[in-house]
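Q: May I have one protein plus its fold?
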Amino acid sequence: MTWRLFSLLCILGAERYAETEITCDDDTDSGAVSDASLLQMNLKLNSLPPACRIWQHTYILNASCEHFGLGQAAGFLVSGASRSGTRFLTQLFQGLGMNVSHHSDAARGADGAVSWIHGLHRSGCTVPSWQSPRFFSKAFLMLRDPLKQIPSRAESTDDFDWLEFARCAADFGPTTATADTADTADTADMADDRLRLALKHYVLQNSFVEKYAEKSFWVEDVNAHHPATLDIIHAICEEFGSSHAHCNDVKLRKLSGALPIHSEPGVKWPQLASIDRPFAAMAQILTRRHGKDVAVDDQLPEMAWGFDCDFHNDLWSCALPPEAGSLLDRSFSLQDMIRSKDTALCAEQLPPLNGSMVLSVSVARTGSETLSQMLAESSGLHLHDHQCNAHTLLEHGAGHVIVSLRHPVSRIVSGMQWHTRLHNLSLSIEAALNSSNMSKISKSQAKAAAGDDEQSDNGQLSHGAYSLQKEVFSFDDFNHSYVDALRNTSDPNHRIALDVQYRPYSNSIFMPVVDFYMKGVTNEELSRVSFVCTCTLKEDMDRVSNELNLNLDTEILTHESVSSSDDPEVQLQWLSQRNIDWIREIYAADEAFYLQHCSHCESIANQAA
């Protein structure tokens, strides 16, 4: 604590510290406090719970943390990161007849304020706005689409030097931009620096305000299409509006329709990740945490690991946990992959299930699409999601699940064959679409064929990961170069391979059966699981159909390969022996589980060979 803060406490009359016998020296200009009083004050603050440190950096009343302003706290504060739409929301409240101020106004409004500047307070920082010793009663967090807000903050020069103030209370780390150059430089490097600073500000400011805010909402949702958000605005008006306020729902809906920030995103997630990957991941986490989706194609693997924030050297600081920061530098592991793929997405996307449903667990390249189609007629649901495991389906109401099994090396080789086929097909279709001799009807048929082919194994590889993968790994030698990069930490493309592999729905051929698809299955649930083998899929499904009285059409067979991926000689055409040995080592539990249920498939494969 600095002497300025103690002087301020004295000036504001912080009577809660009366027992410390703090005295302010009014005879000097220094506002000095005695050394004994400083020590007593430090002891007093240190005796408070650790959570109170957050409140000591806010303008919000908290009696349990002994955090008071001068006089009776009143009114509300809506805060967040800069360029979140604060002017729009201020005008909306004013349109309802409320005395609400913006941070750029001359004084605080009696009913409340909408201000990013007052979201994070630190003693010694010069506040470029009105100041009031009277605290607010409640705070709310307002967010804006990061892909709109971050470039808006980076490019805007129509307000004060925001960066100097923001860096006074939050840890932006070392930057190449200065307070003067952040808004004026025109080079590509400085443009990236401005985006980096705006990205960090988005994470730092929002992550702090969310710690003490009562509720959060998105400025894009302040409209009639999002009644839950309008309910928050209406409740604020009812609680804090004076007698002059008119909290009329009709008027609120009309005013909310005037939001002027329906702009297209000014930046994309890959660009932000290339500028500052850790903070891009943290921005994605914030977005999801407050109810908005991040497209699966854009999700970074680090997103599933969360992030931590706290004060360091009295600056608000945020960082990924160490295990997430080193994620792409470590050896490939099933545990890292499963966690990074954010497998909770399955439960979030599942439709309502009932106890009569029999569903399949979509183990990639085991005939999973065939099973999905067979069961769709009886269950009324075509479920084909490579990130749903048996426990999740049963826990959410499925009556029975079927798990198809295959040797892990065969699964991976089959997936590589599928990737190559899809890649070659896309090249052929692209060439055909660019051909001047191709009719419009033929072009539409080609596009439809491409779509059908992708949908036939939905979830094998997200488009974002596909683009990243094909930039580095040629599909002519995908079999060796990609697995080599996964296996070898010294491979120059190891980080890229892990980045591809750890993304949601990317290369699901590597998702393990024992450690994922069967993970968490209880003894009771195990009685509601049937196992079938890819090599005898029709015969096994006939058996299951009879056992469960399903009357399935087991003639449906969509699983196909150009050559048998179960054939050891074919496998050596796609994988080196070293990589085959590595796969068998990593997936030893899967191989044992497969042999426990499908040992007969090995003799079938040997006979075919």
